């Protein structure tokens, strides 16, 4: 029978923050974590704190309990690459700062292997979703910026300027003037022109103003 796994909490700045979707499992997670003892060569970063709520209704109150360091330094590093069971009963999994729980304790080796695989997939799916969301937002922002300002004009490289200056003889290619010279894009940037030597020419200020953003004049 398959072993489903769900995320219960995430460790943020040393605190166990329970997911809103997993409130019903918070008590079970807290019991599992508080029952764990310390480990040898403990990683100080794994000495987490968890909030426990006692009572119900208006009489409910919360206290924050410190937990024993549940991971060794080596296991903390491993947990960035592979999910780990924190307890021998197979109830709590830790992977990449997430705390996950299988729907039932995993005693059989096959159940434990499946639970760890499902935990890894769940966390990777969450991270990939965030990566894709960032890409979508970045693309949307780039599109809006392009609509607002148009294509960005990259500066013409110095080596391109030297090639063009030598080729055009340091003078306007239209009238031969050597005063108030500009490096001009033959095909304007707004029309897809690049900044290669073939698309750059020297124009004086007057000829450049006449050309504006046209390809020829």
Please describe what this structure looks like.
The chain has 217 residues and is an alpha+beta fold. It folds into 2 domains: 5-122, no CATH class; 158-211, DNA Binding (I), subunit A (Orthogonal Bundle), CATH 1.10.30.50. The chain has 5 helices and 9 strands. The strands form 2 sheets. A 7-stranded mixed sheet has the order 4-3-2-1-7-6-5. Strand 3 (49-54) and strand 4 form a beta hairpin. The longest helix is centred in the middle third of the chain and has 41 residues, at 109-149. The radius of gyration is 32 Å and the shape is elongated. The relative contact order is 0.10. The mean pLDDT is 89.
Secondary-structure topology with pairs:
Elements: E1 5-12, E2 15-18, H1 26-34, E3 49-54, E4 61-66, H2 73-78, E5 84-85, E6 93-95, E7 98-102, H3 109-149, H4 158-168, E8 181-185, E9 200-204, H5 205-211
Parallel strand pairs: 2-3
Antiparallel strand pairs: 1-2, 1-7, 3-4, 5-6, 6-7, 8-9
Biggest beta sheet summary: 7 strands, mixed
Kindly report the average pLDDT value. Answer: 89
| Assembly status | single chain
Gap between N and C termini: 77 Å
Output the strand order for the largest sheet.
4-3-2-1-7-6-5
What is the structural class? alpha+beta
In which range does the helix fraction lie? 25-40%
> Order of SSEs, N→C?
EEHEEHEEEHHEEH
- Count, helices: 5
Q: What is the tally of beta strands?
A: 9
Shape: elongated
Provide the number of structural domains: 2
Strand content: 15-25%
What would you report as the Rg, rounded to the nearest angstrom?
Answer: 32 Å
Regions with little confidence, pLDDT below 50 for 5+ residues: none
